[in-house]
Design goal:
- This protein is mostly beta strands and 234 residues long.
- It has one domain: outer membrane lipoprotein receptor (LolB), chain A (Clam).
- It has helices spanning 23-34, 37-41, 110-120, and strands at residues 45-53, 60-68, 71-79, 82-88, 93-96, 106-107, 134-142, 145-153, 159-164, 171-180, 183-197, 200-208, 211-220.
- Strands 6-5-4-3-2-1-13-12-11-10-9-8-7 form a 13-stranded antiparallel sheet.
- The longest helix is centred in the first third of the chain and has 12 residues, at 23-34.
- The chain is globular, with a radius of gyration of 18 Å.
């Protein structure tokens, strides 16, 4: 698959049978493909530095994200000194939206909070830490490859679908669907340009519901300041 480029490393291709597929074989190929799967499956915290880009590349803005368990904070620099932020302490969430002409934190609605927390589970996913039974549901063509689809239905009603490259074994797309207070919501990401980070392969390009993210740096298990996720001061 052209979108999944392995930079500066040699990767063993995984040729999975075209018949009698089962989730266990596909997950095993994924875990072998990414390298040190144990390092990723036991993450306590992680962070990203990079840029959010427009689809046509005409503008880019600096972006940071920090994750610790169910706690998440994201920041987008709109211009020097003006930062849009969203964060959650794991239960409640808030945002600062400078385009509203206010820098006062406002509570996130349930749908926005859900989308933020989905990101926290991106690497703590069912392929590494099964929280629900994975079901093989066939293939879907992505960029000319018939990718394997695995689906997990969780007790909270969310449905996670994972798309894996049939040759490399890598995750190339994730979609998440749920019903939040009667509203059908979705989050998705297409993943590519994998590079090795601390023993595991991670995507340096994530085309998500929140924008096109060009990752410049990952940190795995950094010590994070609790103030990043704290509720706004009253």
């Amino acid at each position: 698959m052209r979108r999944v480029l392995i930079a500066g490393i040699a990767v063993l291709a995984f040729s999975l049978p075209t018949v009698a597929q089962d989730a266990a074989h596909i997950v095993a190929a994924y875990r072998q493909a990414i390298g040190d799967a144990e390092n990723l499956s036991t993450l306590r915290s992680w962070s990203i530095s990079g840029k959010i880009s427009s689809p046509d590349g005409t503008w880019k803005r600096s972006y940071r994200a920090w994750v610790e368990g169910a706690k998440v904070r994201t920041e987008l620099v709109l211009q020097p000194g003006i930062v849009a932020a969203s964060w959650t302490d794991g239960t409640h969430g808030w945002s600062i939206q400078p385009w509203t002409q206010s820098l006062v934190p406002q509570p996130l609605n349930q749908a926005a909070l859900w989308r933020l927390q989905v990101m926290a589970r991106l690497w703590q996913n069912d392929l590494l830490n099964p929280a629900a039974t994975l079901e093989y549901v066939g293939t879907e063509e992505i960029d000319g490859s018939d990718c394997h689809k695995l689906r997990a239905r969780h007790a909270d009603g969310s449905v996670w679908t994972y798309f894996l490259d049939p040759d490399l074994g890598l995750l190339v797309k994730v979609t998440v669907e749920a019903s939040i207070n009667g509203e059908e919501v979705q989050w998705n990401a297409t993943l590519g340009n994998y590079q090795r980070v601390e023993g595991v392969l991670l995507p340096m390009v994530l085309d998500t519901s929140n924008g096109l993210l060009l990752v410049e740096r990952y940190e795995l298990n950094p010590a994070l300041d609790a103030a990043l996720f704290a509720p706004p001061a009253k």
